[in-house]
Amino acid sequence: xxxxxxxxxxxxxxxxxxxxxxxxxxxxxxxxLSIIALxxxxxxxxxxxTVRQMKSAxxxxxxxxxxxxxxxxxGKDQATLSREIxxxxxxxxxxxxxxxxxxxxxxxxxxxxxxxIRSVMATSPESFLGLSSQLYTWAVTFTATPINTYFLxxxxxxxxxxxxxxxxxxxxxxxxxxxxQNAGTPQAAQQAQMMQVLFPIMFGxxxxxxxxxxxxxxxxxxxxxxxxxxxxxGWGGLTTLPQTLMSLWPLSKNSIWRRESPQSKKR
Amino acid sequence: MKKTILAVFGVLLIxxxxxxxxxxxxxxxxxxxxxxxxxxxxxxSSQGQLExxxxxxxxxxxxxxxxxxxxxxxGCGPSTLAVAVYGTPAVVGDRVYVAGYNxxxxxxxxxxxxxxxxxxxxxxxxxxxxxxxxxxxGFVYIVSxxxxxxALNADKLELEWKFKSGGKIWxxxxxxxxxxxxxxxxxxxxALDAAKGDLLWQASVGGAVVASPVxxxxxxxxxxxxxxxxxxxxxxxxxKWRFPADGQDERPQRWFWATPVVFNGYLYAPCLDGKVYAxxxxxxxxxxxxxxxxxxxxxxxxxxxxxxxxxxDASMYTIEASTxxxxxxxxxxxxxxxxxxIINSQLCSxxxxxxxxxxxxxxxxxxxxxxxxxxxxxxxxxxxxxxxxAGTVTVTEYNTTTVYIPTTVTVTQ
Lengths: 267, 413
Known about the structure:
- The structure holds 2 protein chains of 2 kinds.
- Helices cover 78% and strands 1% of the residues of chain A.
- Chain A is mainly alpha-helical.
- A two-stranded antiparallel ribbon of chain A has the order 1-2.
- In chain A, strand 1 and strand 2 form a beta hairpin.
- The N and C termini of chain A lie far apart (79 Å).
- By secondary structure, chain B is mainly beta.
- Chain B has a 5-stranded antiparallel sheet, with no helix packed on it. In chain B, strands 31-32-33-34-35 form a 5-stranded antiparallel sheet, with no helix packed on it.
- In chain B, a hairpin with a 4-residue loop joins strand 3 (49-54) and strand 4 (59-65).
């Protein structure tokens, strides 16, 4: 194993694996509850990053009118536009990379969590032997393994369609919540809309090929993020959700509700 | 904007491939053990081939593919998948029984060198099979990850009875005197009437068990994931002793995986902590610990009056409790060329020879204690065909550099 692999293993994978096992032990050998508890724990640890990302996003949103103005003024001169945008960022104290950095920093955590879930699930004899080498020599890790892979009737070690759908829905809701705040120029709005759809679809698709435990992490994580986002800046784009859903409803224009409305008005 | 979208797609696709296992993941290749019958040894290679090898010259007699058709996953998988096999094949008369990790049983005829029958063990509750088949008394006994042990009629291969335990069963059962013994992930050791499947007794072993139970005299021994070694009375399942007993300082640091062996009044239990715990069968306080410095998942054998143990890093040792002596027989791994060679399969002893199935590369080694010589046959270069042309098999003399290390034995009284 190369040096990076060893460091990754010792600093991230082994602690994460053992935390999962210990949590499962104290939560009645329940792996689903263990994943939920670990997700909450990870969110508590990465809370400063989350807040930083939200603040960056908010700052970017506040700059959108000025950005649109610059776009209108220097749109034909890309060099000047770029210079002016940089100046605007500098003067406003906004780092556009800050938003992305905070977004991509949790990725190693996802990857290591995925590896830890696979490791703890250990369905094949090879992976069981691999798990043995990951466990600390605490008495609790031996009594806790092998862990019951079932949670609410779902096997956490294999892909699950319901959780994949929930991943898509929860991520879409999370994206939708933040999307309107980021909308500025029509181009940016279009881009945000595209991302709003692409991300949930892709993650839903990925969930169909990974253990359900990881999908469970994504669902719980999205729900927590929605909660944090709500306390930070309200429902955001979700305030328009009922209207959006109504417009998508096939009978909305000729619905009973619509037809009955005038009658009820007469009454 | 197009660039951004493409970049996002790119990142997500890389994640998708990395997560779904196309780019990485634990390969499932199996590690079938070796069994001997009528001048031949039988095993299954990691390429899913049943190999029949003549012991006199270590040449392949015949070889046949064990494969199944699969659509693959997300376009990454091949259309034909080699079947992984973890258990040792069973050979009785003209028949070879192989239990595949895919949950199927394969039966071959030795005289025609052809498949007799291939079937899913349990259509309704289809799960993987890790333990090997056991044949005796007109039955074939097979255990499954679904928690059942099945008894099939050895001729018709039809179900006679089945019994459900509280967890996965990966341990190959042990059949003695009309009783079938096996352990389960539910932390219990079971004894069933081999003909009827009635439960005779069950006893707790503290944790999940992968190793087979070992019987010697009136005792039955089991090793567990709780890092304990248990001795029971095999008639009624009453506990004789447990190692480590209360107050004993010597404690295994990892799971027991391999099946132990009894020799000269000691039970030799290899552990994934790299040590072999030799516990006197008559007194749990008489324990000798041999430190082999690499995890041991391969079940040892007794050969030429010695206990032969293989570590995962492909080092071969002989150990003997009566003399407190351990010797490094050979390091099969060429550290430059074959740094990933491992041994997980159970060893096989025939006369004064011991046979070892290694992985990465996939080989069968033979060590002859009479003239201290090594030979091996490379399974990954064998021609897969029902009619194997003579002379195409690679048999290479293996000149091992035997390095002896000082004996380091810890004695705990």
